[in-house]
Amino acid sequence: MPDARGRIAAIDYGTKRVGVAVTDPLGLFPQPYGTFAPAEAVAALQQLQADDGLRVIVVGWPLTADGEEGRATQRVQQYINRLRNALGPVDLVKWDERYTTIEARERLHATDRSKKRLHRRTHQGRVDEAAAGLMLQEFLNQR
Question: What is residue 2's three-state secondary structure?
């Protein structure tokens, strides 16, 4: 049985980076948590579970533009299986992530007041983290 206390997390999975966002302890507001290598993201979620509890993890489900599953969803399913093994009884919810990366990139560009060029890797990490935050906000809005 999933823990009734604790946070809700969202992940934007990629083979190189996983963006993670979490709610505040009351589960009301999303906030960035970080960008990690896939194995490091599992460890970070395990630590979060140990410290604060996790009740739900919203996992970006990369459907094609036509709403179909493909190779990307197969990779994410493998990662979901890894999370289940590592985290035990936490609800894992697949969430349609179409266009979240595009929207996250647009929002970051719109709010980047300094207009400084960031190192590409740093910038992409922010985009992944922001995409996870957008999915988490959508999930919270539908609850």
Answer: coil
* CATH classification at residue 75: 3.30.420.140
The 10s digit of each residue's pLDDT in 16-69 is 999 999 999 888 899 999 999 999 999 999 999 999 999 999 999 998 888 899
Helix, strand, or coil (residue 117): coil
- Using alpha carbons, select from 83, 74, 69 the residue that is nearest to residue 38: 83
d(CA 57, CA 21): 10
In angstroms, rounded to a whole number, what is the distance separating the alpha carbons of residues 80 and 59? Answer: 8
What is the count of structural domains for the chain? 1
pTM: 0.81
**Domain annotation covers residue 71:** yes
SS3 per-residue string spanning 28-83:
CCEEEEEEECHHHHHHHHHHHHHHHCEEEEEEEECCCCCCCCCHHHHHHHHHHHHH
